[in-house]
Amino acid sequence: MSDSWRQTMINITDRIFPSIIPSHERVGPAFGNEIVSSLPLQMSLYFNIVYFPFWLYTFVSLILIKFSCLNMLFQTIISVSLFLILMLECTRLYLGVQGNLKEKIPDLAAFWMFSLILQLPLQLLFLLINTMPVERAVQGIMCILLLSQLIFGFVILRDMAEHHKLRFHISQFYSGQHSKTE
């Protein structure tokens, strides 16, 4: 009676709280049900999605004020960079949310590469060329969000790849075991 009750409670607890057992102790089909998405990355992406229209409005309105005072080279650089940021930010945030929530490694890797190679230099460029305190504050928040996404994205990408690798190896073991017994 005691062992049966204990096994029932363990089964119920495993269904309700699947992440209590450390991943190295899990084997079999229960291992594949673990969720690997990152809550900190998702929160950072959410805050970036909410903050982006505010950043865009502030940035464009302040650039329009001082656009006529800039020389032609800076006007061109700012215009092209702003266009690139608009296109990249929408794509980058979409890939980040999809990659994190659906645990798609290619989408998450594309998000991380867009963030590191394309978005980070553009955001740092705007942080360095801005002179007004309002511009620096608004751009600083955007850079902090981007850096946090780079850090959280790297960690979750590494963990997700390890999880998928382990799940693949375990599925190979179980599929090989079932084919031998049949």
Automatic annotation (TrEMBL):
Main location: membrane
Annotated TM spans: 45-65, 77-97, 109-131, 137-157
Sorted UniProt keywords: Membrane, Transmembrane, Transmembrane helix
Pfam families hit by this protein: Transmemb_17
One GO CC term on file: ciliary transition zone
Membrane topology (UniProt): Multi-pass membrane protein
Coiled coil: none
Gene Ontology biological-process entries: non-motile cilium assembly
Cellular localisation: Membrane
Name of the molecule in the record: Transmembrane protein 17-like
